[in-house]
Amino acid sequence: MSNANLIILLSTISTGLILGAIFSLVAVGVTIVYGSIWMPNAANGQFFLLAALFGWTMTVSWGLHPAIAAVLVIGLSVPLSYALEFVLIRRFYDVPNRNISYFVLSLGITQILAGIFAFTYGQWSDQFQLPPLIGGITFIGPLPVANNRLLVLVLALAILAALFALLRYHRYGRAIRAVFQNRDAAALRGVNVKASYSLSFALGNAVIFAGGILFALAYSFDLTIAWTMSITAFAIMIIGGPGSVLGAFIVGMVFGFTQAAVSTVASPTIAAFSYLGAMLLILLFKPSGLFAR
Amino acid sequence: MTEVLLEAKAVSKRFGGVVALKNIDLVQHRGETLGMIGPNGSGKTTFVNLISGHTRLSSGSIAFDHVSLAGKNPSQVAKAGLTRTYQAVRVFGELTVRENVATALVDARVRLGAEAVDELADWLRISHRYEARAGGLTLMEQRQLELLMRLVQQPKLMMLDEPVGGLSSSEVRTMIGLLSELKSRCTVFVIEHTMKVIRELADKVVVLMAGEKLAEGSPTDILADQRVIDRYLGTADA
Amino acid sequence: MTQSFKTGGRIQGHSANLLLLAGFAIVAFVLPIALSGNRYLAFVAGVTMIHILWACGMNLLYGYTGLMPLMFAGIAGISAYTVVDLTANGWSFWLALPVGALAASITGTVLGLPSLRLKGFYFTLCSLVIQTVMTLGFIYFSGLTNGDTGFSQIPLPSLRGEPLSSLSYDLVLAAAAVLGVMVLIAIMRSTLGRRLIAIREDDELAAMLGINVTGYKMIAFFVGSLFAGVGGALYAPYIGFISPRSFDVLISMNIWLMVAFGGRGTIWGPVLGAALLAPLSFFLQEYYTIKDVLYGALIIAVIVLMPAGLLGSLGRTPRLPAAEIDAPVPRRSPK
Question: What is the pTM of this model?
Answer without folding.
Answer: 0.91
